[in-house]
Amino acid sequence: MTELRCWKSLEKEREEGNTQGESKLHYTPTEDEETLSNGGADDKQQNDDAGDKDEEDAQKEPIKEESSPEASKKQPTSFLLQQVVKLFFGCVAAVACGMLYAVYLSTYHERKFWFSTKQELEREITFQEGSGLYYYYYKHMLTAPSFKRGLYELTLDNKTISGQTVNIVQLLFLYPELATSFIYRITSSHDFIEPIYFYVGTVFGLQAVCVTALFVCSWVMSGTWVAGILAVSWYVINRTDTTKVDHAVPLRDNWALPYFSCQVAALTGFLSNISSATEMFCYLTMSATSVSFLLVWEHSHYVLFIQALCLFFLDSFDLVPSRKVADIHKVYLSSLFLAYLLQFQNPVLLSSPLLSILIGSVLARHFQVAFLLPVHESDFILKFLEVKFKLNTTTDFVTNFLLCQESFQTPKQDLFLRLTQASVLPFYFLVLTVCLLSTLQTIHRRLSGQTMKLDLKLEDGRIGEHPEVIYHVFHTLLFGGLALLMKYLWTPYVCMFTAFGVCSPDLWMTVFKWLKLKSIHPVVLSLILSTAVPTIIGFSLWREYCPRVLAELSELQDFYDSDMVELISWIRSQAPASAVFAGSPLLLGAVKLVSGSAMTSLPLYSDINLLKRAEDTYQVYGMKSAEEIYKILTSQKTNYVIIEEAICNELRINKGCRIKDLLDVANGHVVYDRGVMYSFSKYGRFCQEIKLNYSPYKNYFTRVFWNRSYHVYKVNSVISFQY
């Protein structure tokens, strides 16, 4: 195979102490010894040797000259030195790629948001998509008298959701903030770096780990670190489709996906043909990263379920040693158990489908899901999937609201266009087709009773018999289906998988084996193509995209929301500290960050109860009476309600996903005439009617602040009847 795999095979053979090369160099075995050590495999070799008798005679003298002890030591030593040098430069390249990417992100972030020239308030509101909420708890941990006291306050938090006391660490998966604040405290980092820079720098450092893991994964599979460089290049070029760290630094997936990348890289190495020491290292890395992944993201157990499903297919067709599958299952179970304990006995992890698939068969898995999931949650997930895949329709606001979120929408055509322009998609389909067909051949051979070859060579042309390759075939197919829900889980591995394929001599050799190429030696041609193709791709990417990447770093951007700054300044100076605010969850995340006030809902889409509270708050944009809205807000103990012009008067081509349209459908205020949707109710739209300041609206609400984008109304504790 490639040089890296050759070295791994040689290392394994040397440990066993029975390689054929050593037996020839150190002594001349007897016929019985040859039979015992080499078995029936030597019969085929002897037949080949007999057919090439003249060639052996011609090479007889050189072999005798190298059979001395000095020659036997010289060749392995030089080979070892060569591999160590390649390993060293590969590791340097991997670390360099990660560090350069972190520097690139930091520079781009500074150019986009002007962090160094802004005040603390202006820096904090750059955390978009409600992600500033997570940073608030990082600040809280730093301002607490002690780390222990701060953690206690978060586990019994009554200052976030109005009228409720919750364990906010468990609800929001705040372990990243706990770990970062703890490190900031014990290292006395406040002496030389501001808290916000330490926080953002930590996230960027994890992104460096992510691309380094993708580098290593592609390197292990292909045997050349050129594949790693190509994978990282494609990842950076397609950054808008591989990560959201540009505009929403504190989001959970920005913390979690680097751990998942490390876990996949360790799993890839574990499935490969490696030494026992390296296998143990991969096993420990898998364990640590799996636990970390489960602790920092609420959707992590679903991702690991998809991964476990891939391994289930491998085990079903006996494509990987059962011992390794059992070890991986131990990793999953131990990780789930530890995460369950560290997440304060979070019942979500016990109801995970990952736990179900570990129990046994597909039938047992479906049975377990049906009984482990809470009834309301099980029904909700089923309804969501039915509507997502066009199997049903619903008027439910929460379901339609989630389907309208960018993260859950089907990737648009421009995603595939960008991947095609970067030359990823054409080569991806080529690599996937070859690996998939070779994998199907392997499955057919296994079903026919044939055994898999343990020591594959390049000339065998069987890329689909490598367990790590088979795993990634299933991985990219299943996560490709998951891309209908979240493209950021699929696109990075498209880059990695494609880079591995074009740089792997095994892939080209498999193709030539099918074509039965005879005019040119297929081994030589496969080695040439595995070098020439990535070189040509790399040169074209350098010429086309390097100027664009550098232009991004030199382009001066400015992100400044003056209306938001004005609103936040008013809340800080005029609103009581104990006030409860109602509004859209994304806006409330920013309000919580800068004021610490309690809110009616959170920008968290994995909790059904919070989504229902958000639906109630969103009714201010529906066609409801002033009395109905007043009852909803007072039931949530609201003091102030914030109405956004961008939502109230939203103009969007896809009208079905506007908040007011979703509310009209859920409230039954929609009339269809000749295929056109109209909204109708005896009440006007609340967010528009309240601005006219007439009775009964002014009886229940008093406007206390307004600008072009936001209107803040105080919910009157005593109703005044004015006309």
TrEMBL record:
<feature type="transmembrane region" description="Helical">
    <location>
        <begin position="425"/>
        <end position="443"/>
    </location>
</feature>
<feature type="transmembrane region" description="Helical">
    <location>
        <begin position="84"/>
        <end position="104"/>
    </location>
</feature>
<feature type="compositionally biased region" description="Acidic residues">
    <location>
        <begin position="49"/>
        <end position="58"/>
    </location>
</feature>
<keyword id="KW-1133">Transmembrane helix</keyword>
<dbReference type="Pfam" id="PF10034">
    <property type="entry name" value="Dpy19"/>
</dbReference>
<feature type="transmembrane region" description="Helical">
    <location>
        <begin position="332"/>
        <end position="364"/>
    </location>
</feature>
<keyword id="KW-0808">Transferase</keyword>
<comment type="similarity">
    <text>Belongs to the dpy-19 family.</text>
</comment>
<dbReference type="GO" id="GO:0005637">
    <property type="term" value="C:nuclear inner membrane"/>
</dbReference>
<keyword id="KW-0328">Glycosyltransferase</keyword>
<protein>
    <submittedName>
        <fullName>Dpy-19 like 4</fullName>
    </submittedName>
</protein>
<feature type="transmembrane region" description="Helical">
    <location>
        <begin position="522"/>
        <end position="542"/>
    </location>
</feature>
<feature type="compositionally biased region" description="Basic and acidic residues">
    <location>
        <begin position="59"/>
        <end position="73"/>
    </location>
</feature>
<keyword id="KW-0472">Membrane</keyword>
<feature type="region of interest" description="Disordered">
    <location>
        <begin position="1"/>
        <end position="74"/>
    </location>
</feature>
<feature type="transmembrane region" description="Helical">
    <location>
        <begin position="161"/>
        <end position="184"/>
    </location>
</feature>
<dbReference type="GO" id="GO:0000030">
    <property type="term" value="F:mannosyltransferase activity"/>
</dbReference>
<feature type="transmembrane region" description="Helical">
    <location>
        <begin position="469"/>
        <end position="490"/>
    </location>
</feature>
<feature type="compositionally biased region" description="Basic and acidic residues">
    <location>
        <begin position="1"/>
        <end position="17"/>
    </location>
</feature>
<keyword id="KW-0812">Transmembrane</keyword>
<feature type="transmembrane region" description="Helical">
    <location>
        <begin position="196"/>
        <end position="221"/>
    </location>
</feature>
<dbReference type="InterPro" id="IPR018732">
    <property type="entry name" value="Dpy-19/Dpy-19-like"/>
</dbReference>
